[in-house]
């Protein structure tokens, strides 16, 4: 198959079709964002990507097929203008798109987010003309280009932790006439050289709201990001920063998920077989099976986030028919074994702090107050593993006695996604 005779004309037609489809579905109701979507050539930002094959391999892994203009121009262009997330990188390995190979399994580490979600993010953050914005996670540069088209390049800063990704994104952006401020930086720390910002939008997920983002947002400004964790539970939060150095907001509805910031990704827990021995505790019949939080349903999606908030350092792994809940911080472990009519559970609870206390003791917040929920260990100002940092409902503020600039966050759980995510600090 050969490339279209006039690629730009065909691409413009497909953009218009995509924009009309999103508008009909109610996913694109802002004329300014529609104009940006119709103007930005997404295919310029995705010279290659992976799509899942129809069949898995012999080990049950997804076969990810490379798609480029050289391999299949029709499929490439159609996918570029579909409302689909396009995976562009696995396991941090940058592909050679001149000679790509099929991948079997792997963890996606970069992508071009589906256009409807990109526009939804900018709209949810209430981005308007005249705003200065910080985007965390440049990725392919497509969402950056949409922001530049809407706001002008001078108002857009975008950071990316992967220098190879940023190099490709910068080339595509400049080739399309956009000139935002770009930097190789970890979004966990924002980007001080361009602060303060009116809006900060993260295209990755964090275990907690990074304090630097609150510090770099103007009073009245907003932060939109996704909270996640090692059980792969997700909830989006929209915060408004107040003049007194606090930030407060609510959890947004929906089942949106994003790849974790690389510094917040789940750690390797070692050989699953080493965790496979049943804990010494007495067995009991489980009230629920693992599908309660792993099923592909909206209810399980939200329950998984709530469970993760209670055990923020836990991970799930399966060895044979046995499901293990492993806490690599404290060493606690629970097993779920199939039993007649349900599941049998055993658990061994440890505390990783070495003081012999319960793994569900009452922690102390960095401000000296007492948190009201289980946590793996007693928290101090130097304790980066404190469960309070993964709370889905919080209020951020500057700690007492600390000079301006540094902020911490603590909070509580127990809120449904529809509730105001108010929180407290001591």
Write structural notes for this entry:
This protein is an alpha+beta fold. It is built from nine helices and 19 strands. It has helices at residues 7-24, 31-39, 73-80, 115-124, 142-151, 163-175, 211-215, 291-294, 298-310; strands spanning 48-56, 62-68, 86-90, 103-104, 108-112, 133-136, 156-160, 181-184, 197-206, 217-227, 235-241, 247-252, 284-285, 314-319, 322-327, 333-339, 342-348, 393-397, 408-412. Strands 8-7-6-9-10-11-12-18-19 form a nine-stranded mixed β-sheet. A five-stranded antiparallel β-sheet has the order 13-17-16-15-14, with no helix packed on it. Helix 1 packs antiparallel against helix 2 (31-39) and helix 2 packs across helix 5. The protein is globular, with a radius of gyration of 23 Å.
Residue ranges: pLDDT <50 for 5 or more in a row?
354-426
Major sheet details: 9 strands, mixed
Rg on CA atoms, Å = 23 Å
Number of helices: 9
Task: Work out the strand percent.
Answer: 25-35%
The end-to-end span amounts to: 65 Å
Number of strands: 19
Structural class by secondary-structure content: alpha+beta
Q: What order do the helices and strands follow?
A: HHEEHEEEHEHEHEEHEEEEHHEEEEEE
Proportion in helices: 10-25%
How are the strands of the largest sheet arranged?
8-7-6-9-10-11-12-18-19
Q: Which overall shape is indicated by the principal axes computed on the Cα atoms?
A: globular
The whole-number mean of residue pLDDT values reads 79
InterPro entries: Methyltr_grasp, PCMT, SAM-dependent_MTases_sf
GO molecular function, one term: protein-L-isoaspartate (D-aspartate) O-methyltransferase activity
Biased composition (Polar residues): 356-367, 377-388, 410-426
Enzyme class: transferase
